[in-house]
Amino acid sequence: MKGGTIGASTTAIEAKNLVKTYPGNVKALDGLSFSVPAGTIFGLLGPNGAGKSTTVKILTTLSRPDSGEASVAGFNVLRSPDRVRRMIGVVAQKSGVDWELTGRENLTLQGQVYGMSGATLKNRVTELLAQFGLADAADRVTSTYSGGMKRRLDIAMGLVHRPRVLFLDEPTTGLDPEVRAALWTEIERLAREEGLTILLTTHYLEEADALCERVAIVDRGRVVVEGAPEELKAQLRGDAIQVELAAPEMNGRVHDALNRLELLREVTVDGRHLRARADSGARAVPAVLAALEEAGVQVAAVTVARPSLDDVYFRYAGRAFAEADKEAK
Amino acid sequence: MLAIQHSWYMTMRHLRALARQPWYIAFSLLQPIIYLLLFGQLFKRVVELPGFSTTSYIAFLTPGIVIMSALFGGGWSGMSIIVDLDRGVLDRFLVTPVNRGALITGRILQLAVVTIVQAAIIFGLGLILGARFSGGVLGAVILVLLAILLAAPFGALSSAMALMARKEESVIGAVNFLLLPLSFLSTVFMDQSLMPGWIRTVARLNPANWAVQAGREALSANPDWAFILVRGGLLLALTIVCGWLATRAFRSYQASI
Fold first, then answer.
1. Which residue from A minimizes the CA distance to B2?
2. Which one, of A299, A297, A286, A302, lies nearest residue A257 by Cα?
3. Hey, is the C-beta of A66 within 8 angstroms of any chain B C-beta?
4. Tens digits of per-residue pLDDT, B54-91?
5. Which band of pLDDT confidence, cut at 50, 70 and 90, is reported for residue A6?
6. Which strands, in side-by-side order, build the sheet including A264-270?
7. Domain with residues A11-232, CATH architecture
8. Helix (H) or strand (E) holding A90
9. Taking all residues of chain A, what is their mean pLDDT, rounded to a whole number?
């Protein structure tokens, strides 16, 4: 391999203290750092507006940070952007398909820009069209493609020159569940068979959980926690208990009633939503219900769940993921 | 070398798009043709004014409209950058090793092709309407070259503006503000000797006027080649400056995201 060395044990992406402020004093990144081991699928997980896309723009040389350093595939993104560009494939959040060209023409031009030509390029384009289920539509102008087809073409374009590192910014946003599942399979195959390092951003918790070997949870421009999803969930110790109250809780009596139960940890009440943890959810629920009844609080629903990334986010970001996501919109 | 190769790829990209919507050329010809027909009729008798250098207004107006349509073609070409921005195509190219200059050159070369087709149609229409030129085919070819040399710098400038403003409305506003005054503060419609003094002074600095005057000269019986060469050289220099500016504008765009 040219330039940097990427083996199984080395780092493919390194971001250090990235800061980026947009006009109007909007702090998109506030000292964001993480590193991605080569050959893994790494997830940047966070609600809308957390700074994921800004991070991808900086790592792919489209944008520059106000301060901080980053390297991709062994090259510094600020000092050697051209070297970085040769090593990476980028699938941006917004499709980059040229509507006036056919699928084949889009792919061919993309390859040409990387210096590919002749039979090598032609075969590569045909291979990718088949691999992404676009062979039949290859010679149609892409303005006739569906959203899912455009997305697949975007990914094929990101791969045409066989990059070492692939960036996928919200690859499945706006896609149907079936299309999304098919893409997940494809992304896993790429990492497994082609030895690619994949950095993927998502605001779907289940996507990060299903695909990523490691995740960094991003909130308000910082990484709040980083690790393997299993490891992060295991750290939470125990089940999550969520209770939906029939009426919003006003005077703290719910909190007082539950805090007396030794089975529970991390009790929080927010309006009608009550969250807590327990080593065994099944044993804690009857006690919780009894305590609430004693306090004269009506319960609408109770759920017990194994710890999820949702809980991990809540624990480290201090707010519910869905709320943060809505807030940003 | 890379710049030339990438420019070729980008030119092909734009020409393919053009071939798929040829009505674009017809649409863009609407305005110049209306000018040629209406002004040709309306001002038919201005040539009778003492001091007007020719006797046929349609022969006077035809090269003017060829140049004016090139000016408009160039001026509006930045809109295609806005489309690329909105569709994410530009961002996709900017994270590849593509030569930045080629992203401008490709557009300019497509613009050159459009300009040739438009010029041929307008010139042909002029001939049908009775315009005759002593300069012959060579004169016509030089007129078209000058039209390209005018479209190119305005195309680059318009692209630079699009990259800096990044909004359709801003580009439309700026282009509208620029194009009509540049057309009227020139000899497109009126002989230089009959213009008010201040317009004559402004026209001397107007690139559109350089192209019109040199084009008419090339179509005349005894062209002053030095005059044509100097105007053409100025336009070429302007093209280079504006092309450089437009290439630099990518940095301004990237600094904004």
1. A115
2. A297
3. no
4. 999 999 999 999 999 999 999 999 999 999 999 999 99
5. very low
6. A264-270, A273-278, A239-245, A299-305
7. 3-Layer(aba) Sandwich (3.40)
8. strand A88-91
9. 90
As a whole-number percent, the residues of chain B with pLDDT over 90 amount to 96
Which of A112, A117, A140, A153 has the most B C-beta neighbours within 10 Å, making it the best mutation to test the interface with B?
A112
Q: Is the pLDDT of residue A5 over 70?
A: no
Token look-up 């790829």 returns B9
Token digits of residue A91: 């699938």
- Residue range A237-306 forms a domain whose CATH class is alpha beta
**Residue B100 Ramachandran class (φ > 0 left, ψ -120 to 50 alpha, else beta):** alpha
Residues of A with CB below 8 A from B255's CB? 64
- Give contacts of B93 with chain A, Cβ < 8 Å: 113
Smallest CA–CA distance from B99 into chain A, residue = A113
pLDDT in tens, B166-183: 999 999 999 999 999 999
* Coil, helix or strand at residue B206: coil
User: A179: closest CA among A205, A209, A207?
Assistant: A207
Torsion (CA) A46, A47, A48, A49 in degrees, nearest 10: -70
Using CA atoms, how far apart are residues A65 and A78, in angstroms rounded to an integer? 9
Tell me if B89 and A114 make a contact (CB, 8 A cut-off). Answer: no
Q: Is the separation of the CB atoms in A328 and A320 below 8 Å?
A: no
Give the whole-angstrom CA distance, residue B125 versus residue A11: 66
pLDDT at residue A180, as a whole number: 87
CA distance B203 to B74: 19
Cβ(A292)–Cβ(A254) below 8 Å? yes
Strand partners, A27: A21
Pairwise CA distance, residues A185 & B148, whole Å: 51
- The structure tokens listed for B215 are 């084009």
Task: State yes or no: pLDDT of A248 exceeds 90.
Answer: no
pLDDT band at A8, cuts 50/70/90? very low
